[in-house]
Amino acid sequence: MSQVGIKDQQIKEIHILLSNYSQTKIMISTFSLTTFFAVLFFSFSDGSTITTSNIIQETCKRSADSTPNLSYNFCVASLESDDRSRCADLHKLGLIAMDLMRHNITSTRRDIRKLLRNKKLDQFVKARLDDCLELYSDAVPILKEAKRCYKEKKYVDANVKVSSVMEAPSTCEDGFRDKEGLVSPLTEKNKNVFRLAALTLSIINMNTHLQ
After folding, report:
1. Which domain holds residue 194?
2. What single DSSP character describes residue 182?
3. pLDDT digits (tens, 9 = 90+) for 10-57
4. What single-letter DSSP state applies at residue 50?
5. For residues 67 and 211, is the Cβ–Cβ distance under 8 A?
6. To the nearest whole number, what is the mean pLDDT of the chain?
7. pTM for the full model?
8. Are 27 and 95 within one domain?
9. Membrane-spanning residues where (predicted)?
């Protein structure tokens, strides 16, 4: 066989190989894509979906299981205290949790101002209360911004801002521990704001995973 004939035969064989490779590649790609969507489907169809009928209970169970210092009963009682929760979806529960935070922050600021009216207040306690008032006052606009981000489904930004607000009650409470034997007059208030912030963060994270 001439060299020209050999080259023609080689070219034909190469074309056949390329054709077979292309078909195989298409089959592999199709299988991979099908497998991907199957995995994606089963990832969201494993029976863990939060339904409307049990949304508060299921949300609180998940939150309590994954969040230290947050009890199931506190979560349920907090969310059910707002009538809007009766027909809320997961996203709306996050807004409710933020509104509960805002209410508790406002209430705590009001209580701090009342305590500061006491003329006989110990100077160390007064200084700590002044610090707490500043912390909670700074938290108000940050929480407002967090709510705006959450409404726009910018969950990462909302998470960062709520985490920042969460520092207010813990920093406030820690300030009273600097003096041995001193009991904070804001322990319960700080605890409630902290737990509501933890609940809010938990719901934000749940919404993040649904995106």
Report:
1. 89-209
2. P
3. 444 434 433 443 333 333 333 333 333 333 332 333 335 555 558 999
4. P
5. no
6. 81
7. 0.75
8. no
9. 26-44
